[in-house]
Specification:
Shape: elongated
Number of helices: 25
Distance between the termini: 49 Å
Helix content: 40-55%
Oligomer: single chain
Structural class: alpha+beta
Length: 815
């Protein structure tokens, strides 16, 4: 009870002391809140993305399985290979696959295309997927030749049917054809709100409707090369990932021996691999998030050093108060406890404000939607982040309060004589100077890292993508199943292009299967007439029309582009890019050369060469690729109509919708995306990291220079009497001011000398995110150093000016 009473007294005394100095209290609280808020926000992200288990039953037993080459992560597999996994493994309790598709819902309101996931038997049970309404798929529904039932996501159910329960059991119409027939699907279930498949299963991402995947005698069910499945499995109880990998390796050896031509890629090294599902989900973001968490921790340390500096100065100013309390019988332990209580009160206020700051920061971070960071939509400052914040309060309260408490309670300081002599002030000044050096060193690490990322982002933004994005937009169109032939599909898209090109404000239009700055779906093999035996290289191919090159400003540097004469009945032609021309015809003329897309494919004649386009992204160098006319290869159902508007004009969305519906009113309008927005989207992760590091660096710079300012101001005040005497004997104010500025700059220089080697080592963590600059870029390191020195000189000069305003009469009177 006595201890509790003492604690209450210490808290009351501490509150009174802090309230008597509101300016000091506010500065310390804000300083610590910045560091606590940043570290709590980043811990929330790390906890939500990396530490929390997946929201499925026994997530540690879930694994991602697929074909892999050269140690790469598991990728697509085929249905026969799924059967091999089911029959040939004992370490896996269940194996199931998912395939991406889409369907057009019609008959009720406007036609709408929705992303769907077709799943094999056991997939829903594998992830504990239970319907909220209705039922799941029956075994018989997996044996049908075509899917006849559908389970809707909660989001689709609410958006299209407004949560109408009567949709259960209703037959909905999809993929309307011109004869009036429909594909009919019966709604049998509604999934719970918020259910999401794992991000690692890319084929299920964003699915709004779920269909059973038939395993009957369809062509894709027997073709091992038809790989469109992502496969997940659940380990048997007691089995580990190592045992599963050894079993998969043995199964791969058997398959390579049985089907040598199917697995001949990469020298026969293609085989099954397994990866824990949680690792597959977060692998791409782990290093980046841990690096950002470390950066926020450095910011918290800087804040603690700054707060310790301020408290140390305050403790020295309170020497007379502490001396009086000591003379009245207060022990050293009692004084330490009182000063630590004040530190913990400051830390508590800072922690509460930091937690509120962190909650707002997490909401802001979610708006960036970085593509490499999964599970961002479920982030929140809840249980464990709040526990982290509470632990930070205690740790930082002791960390930044211990040194001031010990110095403020020393025997010499806690006596009236010691208070008068001020001998302890020199030791405190040395400690404060050391804290400033440490702050500056850590700030240099953050400023240098942020500088590298900013320079890298600027370099990426200045990359020439090989096409003109300004004024160019595209809309995706997927054709229903009733467009049976290549000629029908080619005729549809040609007509739509003509309709859009005729709209007011449209300068040109064309079609492309895969717009630049994205993945490529089609990578056939390229065989030359005199090719040697062995696997032929795969080269990305793109289906386009003649208007594509003009619309995106892609130059034809040799030969010609495509014309209306390159139809289905004309000899196959292609336009290759400059990289492909250099690789396959380094010593000859590519125009007029021929190649084949596979052993039995017809010969294709090269009619032109285009400039290189960075198809995969701005940070990926242009690679060999070529273009073929859609009119000769109309087997894609999904194409993108690209169009360029004239400067200063916009095309209304309704006009685009009507242009498409004039050709076929059953086609859903998917909206419009600008190419500039597509480029911006590709930089989301890079922008996310750069923005965070730049914010951390700015705060670190403010805190470090603020700490230096406090030290300088205390040093000037402590030496006021000395400056007055020097002025009285003829000293020059300017020389004394320069001396004080030099002192501050020397502290900053010491921090820079310590921080630069650390920055060089730490910047290695940024290698994966750097483009156009190296981790040891001398210009960036020099700029960070100059910035710190400039800031130090400025904040050292402000208090140094007080030297010129010393009142000699007042100084001599006090003396």
């Amino acid at each position: 009870m006595g201890m509790l009473n003492d604690l209450i007294k210490d808290v009351r005394s501490g509150l009174r002391s802090l309230l008597r100095s509101p300016g000091f209290t506010m500065v310390v609280v804000m300083t610590l809140a910045l560091g606590m808020g940043a570290s709590t926000a980043m811990f929330s992200v790390v906890d939500g993305v990396l530490l929390k288990p997946l929201s499925y039953p026994e997530p540690d037993r879930l694994v991602l399985i697929g074909l892999s080459e050269s140690g790469l992560p598991p990728s697509y597999t085929s249905l026969p290979e799924l059967m091999d996994l089911r029959d040939g493994t004992t370490t896996l309790e269940g194996v199931a696959g998912v395939q991406r598709s889409s369907l057009i819902i019609s008959g009720e309101g406007n036609p709408e295309r929705v992303s769907t996931a077709r799943v094999t038997r056991g997939f829903l049970d594998l992830f504990g997927m239970r319907v909220a309404l209705g039922r799941s798929f029956s075994p018989e529904e997996y044996d049908a030749l075509e899917p006849q039932v559908v389970i809707l996501s909660h989001e689709l159910w609410m958006r299209r049917w407004a949560g109408d329960v009567s949709v259960l059991g209703r037959t909905i119409r999809t993929d309307e054809d011109r004869s009036g027939a429909f594909t009919l699907l019966t709604v049998v279930g509604i999934l719970p709100e918020g259910f999401r498949p794992p991000e690692a299963l890319a084929t299920a991402a964003g699915a709004e409707a779920w269909l059973p995947l038939p395993t009957g005698p369809a062509a894709y069910a027997t073709n091992r090369a038809s790989r469109s499945l992502y496969i997940a499995g659940r380990l048997e109880r007691g089995a580990d990932i190592g045992a599963a990998r050894r079993e998969l390796e043995a199964l791969s050896d058997d398959l390579r021996a049985t089907y040598p031509t199917t697995y001949e890629n990469a020298g026969g090294r293609r085989g099954f691999s397994a990866q824990p599902l949680v690792e597959a989900t977060v692998a791409s973001s782990r290093q980046m998030l841990l690096m950002l968490l470390g950066a926020s921790a450095l910011l918290l340390i800087i804040g603690c050093a700054n707060a310790a500096n301020l408290l140390l100065a305050r403790a020295m100013e309170r020497r007379r108060e502490l001396s009086v309390r000591s003379a009245l019988g207060a022990s050293k332990a009692r004084l330490v406890r009182q000063l630590l209580t004040e530190s913990l009160l400051l830390a508590t206020a800072s922690g509460v404000l930091g937690a509120l700051t962190a909650a707002g920061a997490v909401l802001a971070l979610r708006t960036f939607e970085p593509s490499e960071v999964p599970r961002l939509d479920s982030l929140a400052v809840d249980g464990r982040p709040l526990a982290f914040a509470a632990a930070s309060i205690v740790l930082t309260g002791v960390l930044f309060g211990l040194a001031p408490a010990l110095f403020g309670s020393t025997r010499e300081c806690a006596t009236l004589a010691g208070a008068a002599r001020g001998s302890e002030g020199r030791q405190a000044l040395r400690l404060r100077s050391g804290l400033v050096v440490a702050e500056t060193a850590l700030a240099v690490v953050l400023v240098a890292g942020a500088g590298l990322l900013v320079n890298s982002f600027r370099a990426v933004a200045n990359v020439d993508p090989g096409f003109v994005a300004e004024g160019v937009s595209y809309t995706e169109i997927g054709l229903p199943q009733d467009y049976q032939t290549d000629q029908e599909r080619a005729r549809f898209f040609a007509t739509v292009v003509d309709e859009i090109a005729a709209l007011p404000g449209v300068a040109s239009a064309g079609v492309v299967a895969d717009p630049p700055i994205g993945y490529t779906m089609w990578m056939p093999r390229v065989l030359l007439p005199d090719a040697e035996d062995g696997p032929a290289p795969s080269v990305p191919a793109h289906l386009v029309d003649g208007g594509f090159f003009e619309t995106l400003g892609i130059r034809i540097t040799k030969g010609r582009g495509f014309t209306e004469l390159d139809g289905a009945d004309s000899p196959p032609v292609a336009v290759v890019n400059e990289s492909m021309a250099r690789r396959f015809w380094p010593d000859g003329e590519p125009v007029g050369a021929q190649f084949r897309r596979g052993t039995n494919a017809p010969w294709v004649t090269v009619v032109g060469v285009s400039n290189d386009v960075r198809q995969e992204g701005l940070t990926t160098a242009a690679e060999p690729q070529y273009y073929v006319p859609f009119s000769q290869n109309g087997w894609f159902r999904y194409m993108n109509v690209v169009f360029k508007t004239r400067p200063g004009t916009d095309v209304p969305l309704e006009a685009l919708r009507q242009a498409i519906h004039r050709v076929d009113g059953t086609i859903p309008f998917e909206g419009v995306t600008s190419m500039q927005h597509r480029i911006s989207d590709s930089l989301k992760t890079r922008r996310f990291v750069t923005w965070l590091m730049a914010s951390f660096a700015l705060i670190a710079l403010i805190l470090a220079t603020g700490g230096l300012y406090g030290t300088q101001r205390y040093a000037v005040e402590r030496r006021t009497k000395e400056f007055g005497i020097r002025l009285a004997v003829g000293g020059l104010p300017a020389s004394m001011m320069v001396q004080m500025v030099r002192y501050g700059v020397c502290l900053a220089a010491g921090g820079i000398l310590v921080g630069l080697p650390v920055a060089v080592v730490a910047s290695r963590l940024l290698d994966r995110l750097l483009f156009g600059v190296t981790a040891t870029d001398p210009g960036t390191l020099a700029t960070a150093s100059a910035l710190m020195l400039l800031g130090a000189a400025l904040v050292a000069w402000i208090p140094a000016r007080r030297v010129t305003r010393v009142d000699l009469v007042e100084v001599l009177r006090n003396e």
